[in-house]
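Help needed: design a sequence for this.
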């Protein structure tokens, strides 16, 4: 039995992904290393924009700063992007695909880059906890009326 597809069927796919920007500043004084746990502050944002009729770009930005007392140990900034193709989907469903589904699919790759970067810089790998992008998106929608914007 063969499957018949039509051009009007809804479709969503990631057609490309990768690092747009990665910055790591290692500010540790290797002569004065402490075995105490540093405080780590993490920020995660997602943003989406339309590129053409059915192609969108989603940007996942992760910032991490490790401090010990008043000294900064490292600063990490990662912008990881995904290109999505969305066809024949109702307009009101697109923001959810861009701000929830796509970041959820990109996050494991970005998480691995963060862990590898911190590990390669001489720190224990920074393993980010899973993120609830749906909650992030809905919380941000209440604060900002921009439908395809920050999550």
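Sure. Designed sequence:
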């Amino acid at each position: 039995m063969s499957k018949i597809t039509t051009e009007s069927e809804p479709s969503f796919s990631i057609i490309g992904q990768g690092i747009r920007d990665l910055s790591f500043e290692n500010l540790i004084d290797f002569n004065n290393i402490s075995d105490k746990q540093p405080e780590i502050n993490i920020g995660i944002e997602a943003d989406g924009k339309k590129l053409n009729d059915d192609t969108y770009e989603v940007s996942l930005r992760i910032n991490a700063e490790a401090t010990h007392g008043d000294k900064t140990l490292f600063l990490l900034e990662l912008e990881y992007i995904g290109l999505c193709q969305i066809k024949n989907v109702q307009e009101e469903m697109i923001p959810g695909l861009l701000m929830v589904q796509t970041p959820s699919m990109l996050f494991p790759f970005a998480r691995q880059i963060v862990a590898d970067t911190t590990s390669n810089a001489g720190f224990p790998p920074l393993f980010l906890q899973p993120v609830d992008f749906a909650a992030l998106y809905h919380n941000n929608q209440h604060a900002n009326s921009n439908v395809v914007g920050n999550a």
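DSSP finds two helices and four strands in the chain.
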